[in-house]
Write a structure and sequence with these properties.
It is built from two helices and 13 strands; from the N terminus they run αβββββββαββββββ. It has helices at residues 2-21, 104-111, and strands at 43-51, 61-68, 71-73, 76-79, 82-85, 89-91, 97-102, 116-122, 128-130, 132-133, 136-137, 139-140, 150-158. Strands 2, 3, 6, 8, 9 and 12 form a six-stranded antiparallel beta sheet that branches. β8 and β9 form a beta hairpin. The chain is globular and about 40 Å long.
């Protein structure tokens, strides 16, 4: 019992230190247990990633983030004892097309923090890096009435190395 408490306390200290050093990757509030909702009930974010030369950018993982004061934040979670980014994501296909499925419960939770949403990549330090158009982060707007469950962002030019 004493050892278990010590381990929990040590994990809490490590997690706190990690979160402080990764302030931009702010953990969103915990969600209620996931429902068995189908794709039809989820919000869909779609787009096409293109390189500057107009060719598709295949096999790139695009994440869904919330924004606050111009800074993107990801949802963190514990997977197999490791803190990881667990924000919804999608991978671009051979033609650069991607789709991200977002549970409405997540949007509702994040709206308690912010009403601005974006998409982007994780940089080499696993920090959120929003995609931009003309230097401005791409924003994702959802229909509050739930009439439109799909947001198509069109073509997005990315500068990938």
């Amino acid at each position: 019992m004493v050892i278990a408490r010590f381990i929990c306390a040590a994990l809490l200290v490590l997690a706190s230190a990690f979160c402080l050093s990764r302030a931009r990757a702010l953990a969103a509030p915990e969600l209620a247990p996931q429902s068995n909702s189908s794709s039809a009930e989820k919000f869909l974010i779609a787009g096409t990633l293109l390189h500057k030369d107009g060719l598709p950018a295949p096999r790139k993982t695009v994440f869904f983030f919330f924004m606050q004061d111009g800074v993107a934040y990801a949802k963190l979670g514990l997977q197999a004892g490791v803190i990881k980014v667990v924000s919804p994501s999608g991978k671009s296909d051979i033609k650069g097309r991607f789709t991200i499925e977002v549970d409405p419960a997540l949007i509702k939770e994040w709206r308690a923090i912010s009403t601005a949403f974006t998409i982007g990549f994780l940089d080499e330090n696993r920090q959120p890096l929003p995609l931009t158009r003309n230097g401005v982060p791409i924003t994702v707007n959802f229909d509050d009435q739930g009439k439109s469950k799909k947001v198509d962002l069109g073509e997005i030019t990315v500068d990938l190395k």
